[in-house]
Amino acid sequence: MNRMTIIPAILATASILGACSNDIEMRRPPKYELPELPVITDIHCFKAPLYWSVYEYCYEQEQQGVSNSDMDITPEEWDKIIDWVATDLKPYGYDMVCTDGFIPMLANDASGYMTHYGSMPLKDLVAKCKAKGLKVGVYDNPLWIHGPSETKVAGTDYTFGQLCYQNDMDIMNPSAENMWFNWAVAENPGTREYIDGFFKHYADLGIDYIRMDFLSWYEDGKDRNIGVVGHGYGRASYGRALSYIAESAKKYGIFTSLVMPHLYNDAEVEARYGNMVRIVADTAGGGWWHCSAQDRGKSYANWPNCMNMFDGFVYWSHISGRDRVILDGDFIRLNKFDTDAERETVVSLQLMAGGPVTVADQYHTIGANTRFYTNTELLELNADRFVGKPVTDQLGNADNQIWYGQMSNGDYVIGLFNRDDNSRAFSVNLASLGIEGEWKVRDLWKHADEGTATAISATIPPHGCKIVRLSK
Most buried in the list 8, 63, 292, 418, measured by CB within 10 Å? Predict the structure, then answer.
């Protein structure tokens, strides 16, 4: 939630190779030294989630001038949302409803951890969803302190207030005040226990997905869009905090989604300790602008490294894979796209990259677009934990519009994406991708077999795609 909103190029194509613009800005995050940190094993065992988020509901309320303190969702509205998700999306694997920011996150019991999302008790939301066969994910951060400063950390004599910044601490921005958040600092005694209590609290509620935001603000207290936003506790503190988070998340079986990280050192810490990591700026108004157009071909040295989904998936493709960290392209708002070709592209991109498909459309804004989320042939990629790669992770090279990967049964999936405003002709020799011989070809959007082939050729409409599965 935003309040302001490698592999070699070995492909032979007709009309695509060699398209590299001289004005492309490509920057990798800088390197920073880290202390030795613990190894947390076997955390990359999840598939990417399929779920619905309140994001669009809240974002549109904010755009209409509703203050965050006044924003809420009534029990009756929750019932409509849950019924719709359970009826129209759950049969296709979308098995979770998730909160986001915007609406007040309240700690209304002695634990000091979040108990209410606005007026809705989380335990009641879990019960409503469980009755419909759905899970609940929560937007919260194990380093945020919600309760009173005198609250005791369970099992210790430390208080919440003692977890926060102390005047003798070595911080990156000594003259800065923290914006919005009270942070628990990893080095303070009691913080490790506080984080463990956070995950136990949510596990006891029946929550098994946590979306944790504004991580860059903890690490160095800086935001590329705003400037200095807080103390900045440093690289070592950030690494230690994420190791505590990974340790407790694994202990309680909770999936962690890391949001707004700088991803320094080639995402060294995040890829080690998170199950999923955001690799693109916030969805905001959504549409093709967020999917492909915004600052196309540019990357930056800190958060957000890329401004559109496609660039984010390309730029960070080398860190993902089966049994590795999952890349998150943020929420999808299909009702904000102009064409069906664009809608096919945005859903296909997430699934080709092994990312989540996070529905932010609402039951009254989705219109006739549900069918793009419920393509069962494409969703088989998610069930298989498939992760494809672009031919190159260079943002200025048009070969990054060609993706491929192999499923666990040996089938291959190839995605041809046209990010341009005009039709493009593609011709892909399978052998150039290391796929030898002749293969049966099936188009996953047309749901049609296309015979056998040793090459894939197609003319793709503007902003469109072609996704094929190859089998023997």
Answer: 418
